[in-house]
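SAMPLE LOG
Freezer: B-3
Tube label: C17
Construct: single chain, 276 aa
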Amino acid sequence: MGFDIERFVGTVNEGLLCCVCRDVLEDPLQAPCEHAYCSTCIHGWLVHDRICPEDRQPLNITQLRPLFRYMKNDLDRLQIRCINAQHGCTVVCELENISKHERECGFVTVCCPNMGCSTIVERRNLDVHLNICDFRCKECPRGCGMQILNHDDAEHNCIAELRTEVELLRAEMICKLEDQRREMESRLDSQRRHMVQREGLLQTEVDDLKGQVTRIMQEMRSLMEMERQRRQDLERAELEKRELVELIKGIPREGSESIKSVTCSRCKRSERITII
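STRUCTURE (predicted):
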């Protein structure tokens, strides 16, 4: 809701009135169609209707923007009476300063801060009331340091009150220690769960590494076996090469023939051949 127009001194421009409540704008927002509303009013309106209340054009919350600067300046400069004028306050100030004044206004009614007292007085008279309030507290004159009510002075027992205070402090400390213990247990449980999860992940990684090492060892053994076989084949080929060279060297010249015994290096069988 906006500010009651009757509180303002002088004429208020029509453009500074809320299109919903028709009061002077409070926390103003503006639509793309340039109509302005109180923030509370337009949010409540858009819950049920997604249109501008003035020209019925489509409207949603995301389209609302702050008031134009020149309009906001005009709004802030309006002269308004204090809301406590009916109680005797005569202050008239600019709208932008009214909230600060009303928080400090001496004519606003406040409750007595003393526990048990239900008296309501104007702020300007609060100090006078506190000096005579039956529920005002004072420090124990016997030196225990406790705050006591005026009418409880005769019934006040320093030892009993201090014992009660100690018990309250003890109970409070026990509660705090219990809370800290539960918090520490919760943290330890969380850390244990984290460590178990971490241990599982590490064990999985170790198993994977073991599998990789096993595969690499198998591949190395296969490669070594292949290399051994390759060397044997090379040695065998080299031997056959030497035998062929020796055989070629032993071939006689043209026109001559001879019979020679040849032994196969693989099967070890001997054959007699005629060389021409």
